[in-house]
Amino acid sequence: MRRHPWLLTLLVLALALALPACGGGDDDEGGGGSTGGGTGIPEEFAAPTAPPEDAQPGGELTVIAAEDIDYMDPGPAYYQFTYMVTAAAHRTLLGWKPDDTTEPSPDLAAEEPEISDDGKTITFKLREGIRFSPPVDREVTSADVKYAIERGLLPGVANAYLPSYLGDVVGFKQALKQARENPTGGAPDIPGIQTPDDQTLVIELERPTAATVIQALSLPISAPVPEEYAKEFDAENPSTYGEHVVFTGPYMVENNAKGELVGYKPGREIRLVRNPNWDPETDYRPAYLDAITIREGFADTASASRRILNGSAQVNGDLTPPPNVIQEAAQSAEPGQLTATPSGGNRYIALNTQAPPFDDINVRKAVVAASDRVALRNTRGGELVGPVATHYIPPNFPGFEEAGGVEGTGADFLAKPEGDIELAKEYMRQAGYESGMCEGDCTVTLVGDGASPAKETTAVFEDALRALGFEPQTRGVARDIMYTRFCGNPKAAPNVCPSVGWLKDFNDPQSMLQPTFSGDQIQPSNNVNWPQLDVPEINEAIDEATLIADPEERAKAWGEIDKMITEQAAAVPYVWDNQVNIQSADVAGVINLFNANWDLAFTSLKAE
Amino acid sequence: MLRYIARRLLWAVALLFIVTAVIFVIFNVLPTADPAQLRAGRGASVEQIEAIRESLGLNDPIHVRFARYVEGVVTEFDLGRSIFQNNAPVRDIIFDRLPATIMLTVGAAILWLAVAIPVGVISAVRRRSLLDRTTMITTLTLISAPVFWLGLVALYLFAQDVGVIKIFPGIGAYSEADTFLGKVGAMILPWIVLASATAAIYARYIRSQMIEVMGEDYIRTARAKGAPEGVVVRRHGLRSALTPVVTLLGVDIGTLLAGNAILTETVFNIPGVGGELASAIGQSDYELIQGIVLFGAFFIVIFSLIVDVLYAYLDPRVRYS
Question: Is A3's CB within 8 Å of B161's CB?
Fold first, then answer.
C-alpha cells in the first residue's frame, strides 16, 4: 500500500463538507469525465480525463504540495504523489492513460504482452526509438528493464511490492536471498527474467500468475534503468541513484552534465523540463507543457489552496483543500476548478479475529450491525465524500458489481447503514450473551490515529461498542506508531484498529483483498491483514483466484471472495473514498483515474 | 582569558558528546517506530525488513552503532540519511536549509533589537506615563499571541497572494525569489511576525534592567556631576542594562538557528531548518529529526560559548570567578 493514506482522510473530510452546498455548471473544458456508478460524485465535479480539443502547447505549470515525494528513484517509489511525477517522466512497460480504469496500455512495450497458453510465460516486445535522457542518451533495451526489476531487490533500493506481485517469477526467492547476503554487490540475477534480444523481455513464472505480474509492471518498478550508469550508485547502501536518475518520458528532472539532479531539492522543489531525447512519435502522451515546477512545503493547506484558486499557483500535488476552502470554491470558483475522483480506496474498522471477544463471529456481526456507518462516514465529511461501503472492493473496480455493487453482498448485519441495534443484540444472544449485551469482562482495547478526523471516527465507533455493553479503552497515537507498534504487529495488536484503510496498488481486486484479508499474508511485523483474518476457505479461494487470467472470470472470482470476507464480519467497512483536486482557472487539467490526481503529461494551459 | 576560553571549549566538547549520546539513545534504544520498517514501506515482507536492518547495521550492538555514528559525525559530519526524502544525506538537507534560517534569524534579531531597545529605554525613563503603559500593554498582547496565529493573520491581511491588502510577498515567496533583494522582500512579513513576540519580551526585559540600573549610585553620581540626562541614559544606563541582554540574545539566536523558528517557517513556507524539522516529525523521519536536533544542540552550545566568552570580556569578574 502506498504511504500517506491520511491524505485520503483529509481529502474526504474536505470534500464532504463542501460538496453538499455545491452548484456550478458543466465542465466543457475536458474532453471526458468520470463520475462512475456508486461514487456519489455529481456530474459538475466529474474529473476531466482528456485534454480539450484546442489544448495549447507551451507554458510552465506550477504545482504546489505539502510534502515531498518519497523517492525520485523509480525502484522504491511507492506513493501516490510520487506517481504523479513518475508518470510524466518515466515510461514503464505498461502505463495508465487518463481514462484507463481496468487495464493498462502499452507504453514502453510496443503492444499488449503475449501470455503463453499455460499462463506461465509473459513476453513483452519493446518499442524502438526510446532513449534515456542525458547524460546516458542511448536507446533503451530490454536489459534495462531487467536490471530495473532486479535492483529492486537490493536492500538499498528495497521495492516494497515486488515480493507480493512478482514472487512467482522463476528464481525470484533465490535472488532475494542473494541480495540480502550481498547488499552492495550488484543487483542479483533473476533467471526467470530473460532478454533474448534488445527488444524482447520474457518473464517465466512458477505459477500462472501472469495477470497480476502484468498489472504490477505498470508501476514504476518497470521504468528502465541503465546498469552501466546506475551500478556505481547502487553499490552504495542506500542507493544514491535517486540523486542521478535518468528518464525516458517527455519530462526529466533538470540535471547537469554529470547527471546530478540539480532540479530536485528534497522537500523544497522539483523542476521538470522537457527531455530532449523524448520522441513524441513513440508515445501516447501529448506533453503540452514546456516545464513544470513542483513547490513543496505548503503545510497550511488552506492558504495553499487559495493560492491555486486565485491563480498564484496552478494545481495541487499531495495537498488537499480543507472543507472551508472547498466550500468557497464550490460557490465561487469557475466550473472545472474543483474535481472529485474515486480514489480506489476504502476505510474500515478492523476487529481482531484472533483474540476474545472478536474471535467469535457472532460478536463481530453484532458489533458491525450496531455500527452507524453513516455517522462513521460523516466524521470524514458527508454524503459526497464517498458512498457508505458495504464490502471491500471499491466502485469502478473489477469485482465490485460481482460482489453486490453499492447494495452490498446481502449480509444482514450490513443491511442498515445507520445500524440495527436489535439485530446486533440478536447476534450477541447467539454468541451466548442472553441479555443481548456483553457480560463479565467487557473491556475492548482500541489503538487508533490520535489526529482528526480519525479520532472522531473512533469516538463514533465507541458508541456502538457501548450500546452492546462493551467498555472501550482507547489509545490515540501517531499514525506510523499505530501501524508499526500496534496494528501491524500481531503480538501487540489491540482488539480494534479503528483507523485503517487500503488504497489499491493497481486496478485489480487482488491488490485490494489479498494483502489485507489472506491468512497467508499475516506476518509478525509490518502486517497489513489487520483483522488477522485466517479462514482456510478464503485463503484457498484467494490462491486460486490469483491464477485466473481471464478478466471476467477473475472479476467474478474476486467478487465472490469479497462476499466471503464480508460474511466474516472481520471489519466495519464504512466508506469508499473519493479524492478532490483543484486547479486555477487558467489550467486545462486532466485527471488520471488510475492515480486520482493530475496527469502532468496531459495537462495544458488555456490560451490567454 | 585564554585559559578561560580553553576551559569553556573543553566543556563544550564534553557537552556535545553527552548531547549526542542522549539523542542517540532516544532515537535508537527507545524508538517509537522501527526505522527498518519505515524505510521498507508498508506491505514490505519480513524478509525485506530484515535485509534492510542487516544492511544498515541496525542489528549491531548499541555501542557499535553509537561508535559508528560518532565516527561519521566527527570525520565526515555524516548525520545519516533521510528515510523519506529520497535517501538524501541529512547533512546536505540541513546545509540546504540553513541560509534561509540564518536570514530569517538575523533579520528578525535586528528588527526586534531595533524596536525593543528604544521602547524599553523610553518606558523605563518615562515610567507610568501614557507611553509606558501603552507600550507595555502592546508588548503583553504580542507576547500572548501565538506566532502561527500572528503569521496567518499577517498573511490574510497583507500577503500579495492571499491577503486582503496586497502589500508583501506571501507564502512560499522566499523559494520563488531569484534574487537576494527578492528574498529580502519575501522575508519582510516573517521578520515582523518572528520579531514581534521577541521584541515585546526584550522591551520588557530592557525596561526592567534600565529601571534597576537607573537607580544605581553611579547614575546619581553622573547626574550630580552635571552630565546631561541623555548621556546618563545612553552611556551609563543603557550600556549596563544591555550586558545581560547579550546572554539572552546569544541563546535566542542559537535556538532559532537550531530550528526554533519552526512555526514561522512553516506558516510562510520558508525552506529553513525549523520547517524541515516540522516536516520530519510529521513523517517520523527519525534520522532527519536526530540530525537536526544534534545540529541544533551544536548551535546552542556554540552560541552559549560565544556568549560566555563575550560576557567574560565585558565583565572581568566572570572569568576570575
Answer: no
Rounded CA gap, A572 and A174, in Å? 39
Percentage of the residues of chain B whose pLDDT score is greater than 90: 31
Residues 269-308 of chain B whose Cβ lies under 8 A from any Cβ of chain A: 269, 271, 275-276, 278-279, 282-284
Q: What is the pLDDT of residues A596-607, one digit of tens each?
A: 999 999 999 998
Beta bridge partners of A131: A139
Identity of the residue in A264, A298, A524 whose CB atom sits nearest the CB atom of B269: A298
B264 touches chain A (CB under 8 A): no
Mean per-residue pLDDT for A514-523?
93
The predicted structure's pLDDT at residue B29: 76
Q: State the total domains in chain B.
A: 1
Query: What is the CATH architecture assignment of A347-576?
Result: Roll (3.10)
Q: How far apart are CA B245 and CA A608, in angstroms?
A: 57
Separation in Å, CA of B139 to nearest CA in chain A = 27
A525 contacts on B by Cβ (under 8 Å): 34, 37, 46, 49
ipTM tops 0.95: no
Mean pLDDT of chain A: 90
Residue B137: phi and psi, rounded to 5, are -65, -40
Q: B191 vs B103, B198, B248, CA distance in Å?
A: 9, 11, 19
Q: Is B86 part of a structural domain of the chain?
A: no
Task: Name the residue facing B87 among A242, A480, A515 (closest C-beta).
Answer: A242
pLDDT per position as a tens digit, A476-485: 988 878 888 8
Q: What is the largest CA-CA distance in chain A?
A: 77
Question: Does some domain include residue B39?
Answer: no
Q: Residue B134 CB: number of other CB atoms within 10 A?
A: 11
Query: Does residue B130 belong to any structural domain of this protein?
Result: yes
Fold entry, domain A80-247: D-Maltodextrin-Binding Protein; domain 2 (3.40.190)
**B164: CATH:** 1.10.3720.10
Q: Which of 201-260 (B) contact A at CB < 8 A?
A: none
B185-206: average pLDDT: 92
Using CB atoms, which residue from A70, A156, A269 is nearest to B175? Answer: A269
Query: Which residue has better confidence, A426 or A185?
Result: A426
- Could A160 and B41 be called an inter-chain contact, meaning their C-beta atoms sit closer than 8 Å? yes
Domain ranges of chain A: 80-247, 347-576
Instruction: Give B111 to chain A, closest Cα distance, Å.
Output: 26
List all residues 6 or more positions away from A406 whose beta carbon is below 8 Å from its beta carbon.
A37, A38, A387, A390, A395
The pLDDT tens digits of the residues spanning B92-117 come to 999 999 999 999 999 999 999 999 99
pLDDT at B70 over 50: yes
